[in-house]
Amino acid sequence: MTNTATEPLSVVVEREIACPPEKIWRALTQPHLIEEWLMKNDFKPVVDHRFNLSADWGVVDCRVMSVEPNKTLAYTWAAYGLESVVTWTLTPTSTGTHLRMEQSGFRPDQQQAYQGAQYGWQQFFANLEQVLARLD
Amino acid sequence: MVIRRINSPQVIDLKMPDAHDVLFRTLADPTRRALFERLCRDGELTVGALTARAGVSQPAVSKHLGILKHAGLVRDRHEGRQTHYSAQLGALAPLVDWTSQMAGFWQSRFDHLEDLLKRMDQ
Fold first, then answer.
1. Whole-angstrom Cα distance, residue B8 to residue B19?
2. B112-116, long-range: CB < 8 A, 24+ apart
3. B113 and A33 in contact (C-beta within 8 Å)?
4. Interface pTM (ipTM) of the complex?
5. Which of A121, B39, B87, B119 has the fewest CB neighbours in a 10 Å radius?
6. Per the CB < 8 Å rule, is A10 touching B1?
7. At what angle do helices B58-70 and B30-42 cross, to 10 degrees?
8. How close does chain A come to B73, measured CA to CA in Å?
9. DSSP letter for each residue of B41-81
């Protein structure tokens, strides 16, 4: 476990893809293309735009946080009571694009939502590693 | 924790049982999280001992403990007129599961994305 204060709960998936960033960007930002690989949606690449991703199992509530065409895209991802942020990063390579997706729960900027908290999520997860170690 | 899996396709959907939902919602409240964290740190405590440092009233603490108990995060033990609470660490397992479920979910979505990219502009 590499639980750190800045990256408490995080999923990273990355791949080398033999396509230019511009093409991948279209697949990440055009609703009819997003639907083909992710879910039905009403996405727009506009900061603060709220959208839903829907599937037969339920709906994910999202809000666009940042858009930098062909480079980065970030949106919040709220489902099943858990707030997280999904960040896409596209880096050109000699053969195409390095595509990286990071989904992080409970980021420091989200703690603003819990003002007045005696303990923030950060401290909670800083201790969680020790707690989970005792489960083994 | 960071879970990295490169190119290991896996089909999984995102559906989570209600237990996950209950766990996340229960721990989303800072007062409850603090109570749970204190029980993790200090071991078994009475309602009175928890109230002394909780910053809220005893009825409020009892209510929060009831919700924690419902989520399986604490267990109570009655001894005379006192109720002792202890943390149930095993109940945290879904938080760990969340990362592995989401990793599997995104791996399968990446597969679909790559398939789509092959079909585009042809």
1. 28
2. B112/A36, B112/A37, B112/A38, B113/A24, B113/A27, B113/A37, B113/A38, B114/A15, B114/A17, B115/A37, B116/A27, B116/A33, B116/A36, B116/A37
3. no
4. 0.72
5. B119
6. yes
7. 80
8. 13
9. HH-SEEHHHHHHTTSS-HHHHHHHHHHHHHTTSEEEEEETT
Distances (CA, A) of B12 to A115, B16, B106: 35, 11, 9
> Coil, helix or strand for B3?
strand
Q: Which residues pair with B78 in a beta bridge?
A: B83
| B77 in contact with chain A, both atoms CB, cutoff 8 A | no
A1: its two tokens: 């476990």
- Three-class secondary structure of residue B37 per DSSP: helix
DSSP 8-state secondary structure symbol assigned to residue A62: E
* Residue A15 to residue B6, Cβ atoms within 8 A: yes
Look at residue A123 and give its three-state secondary structure. helix
Tens-level pLDDT at each residue, chain B (122 residues) = 343 333 333 333 444 556 667 777 788 788 898 899 889 888 899 999 999 988 899 999 999 999 999 999 999 999 998 999 999 877 877 666 677 778 888 999 999 999 999 999 76
* Interchain CB distance below 8 Å, B34 and A118: yes
Decide if A77 contacts A59 (C-beta within 8 A): no
